[in-house]
From TrEMBL:
Pfam families: MgtE_N. The keyword Transmembrane helix applies. Residues 137-188 form the Magnesium transporter MgtE intracellular domain. The chain crosses the membrane at residues 12-36. Residues 65-120 form a coiled coil. Keywords: Coiled coil, Membrane, Transmembrane, Transmembrane helix. The keyword Transmembrane applies. It comes from the Bacteria. InterPro entries: Mg_transptr_MgtE_intracell_dom. This is Magnesium transporter MgtE intracellular domain-containing protein.
Length: 193
């Protein structure tokens, strides 16, 4: 039993002194060779890959790096395509922005023209209103019989516009002097307003 202990202790001693450090050094060398990219290490890798057992580890790495480089190239191509698309989209946006600016300018010009026309229309309408008010004052100052003769010569629409400028009392006096058919039509239209 003592001898078996001595043999075991010699085996343990042999393991601790030679085998374990050898395995650790080998593992460290493999990790260093796979991680570091240096020209001398490349030479070492190529000479080590000639060994049958070690070549299994490096062949897989070569395939993985080839796949990664292909994938990297595909991603680069996709990135370039997306950058081209982005450039085209930016150009389209710039064109649309310029079109929008042009349309806004046209809109401002049209708005200015409309406001000028509206102000001209307001002036014309104010002048027309002023002239109708003056006509109304003339009707109020003349006799109902004379005003009725003038109204009788106008169309129904013109008659209503003229009568709108005078008071209700004066309207009734003038309408009473008109022919009955014309008076009835004017009364209908005045009532519908």
């Amino acid at each position: 039993m003592n001898e078996t202990k001595k043999k075991m202790s010699k085996f343990q001693w042999f393991m601790v002194i030679f085998i374990i450090p050898f395995v650790l050094i080998l593992a460290l060398a493999v990790v260093t060779l796979t991680v570091v990219e240096h020209p001398t290490i490349e030479k070492i890798k190529s000479s080590v890959t000639a060994l049958p057992v070690v070549s299994l580890f490096f062949d897989d790495q070569a395939e993985v790096s080839e796949l990664q480089s292909e994938e990297f190239e595909q991603l680069e191509q996709q990135l370039l395509q997306q950058q081209e698309n982005l450039t085209l989209l930016n150009e389209t946006i710039e064109q649309r922005d310029s079109q929008i600016a042009e349309l806004e300018q046209e809109l401002l010009e049209i708005g200015a023209l409309l406001s000028e026309e509206n102000s001209e229309d307001d002036v014309v309408q104010t002048n027309a209103t002023n002239s109708y008010e003056e006509i109304g004052k003339l009707y109020e100052n003349m006799s109902a019989k004379n005003a009725a003769r003038i109204i009788a010569e106008l169309t129904i629409d013109e008659s209503i516009v003229h009568l709108d400028t005078i008071s209700s009392e004066e309207q009734s006096k003038i309408i009473s002097k008109l022919e009955s058919e014309q008076a009835a039509e004017i009364m209908k239209r005045l009532a519908n307003r």
